Amino acid sequence: MYNTRHVLNTLLQRAFKEGRTDVSPMKAQKLLFYTHGWHLATTGHPAIEHNFDVWQFGPVVPDLYHDLKHFGSGPVSSYVKNPFEDKPFVVNPMKKALYESLDIAWEKYIGIPAVNLSAMTHEVGSPWDVARRQGLSTIPNALIRDYFVRSASR
Length: 154
What we know:
Structural class: mainly alpha
Organism: Rhizobium grahamii CCGE 502
Number of domains: 1
Number of strands: 3
Helix content: 40-55%
InterPro entries: SocA_Panacea
Domain Antitoxin SocA-like Panacea: 29-128
Strand content: 5-15%
Protein name: Phage-associated protein
Oligomer: single chain
């Protein structure tokens, strides 16, 4: 399990290197969710230390929402900073399995607009949908893992 901001900054680093200008805060949250889901499905372990909450527009890590909200609906143009120091979290080397999960999420979802990614997280039977119907405020990792394991077998 990795620091949530480190994993997000790794996704942002890739976006910056590729010159992408379509990674809004919403899209960043959804890419992180899909990375986390594929990592749970392929390794059985969480990718990040935070849980995803059930919010109106899908799964959200509240701390990251607050880190990114100043970008509004525009592109995220800088790394997430350490809340205890005024500098970005360093993008550290991570284990191969996490990079593989990042690659899966990137290849599958980077070309999909944020609003469509949000809609996908609302599909009937999705972890967000199940948690919402059960009245949960946080999506259990077991729900996320099971969903992505089923998705991988389709």
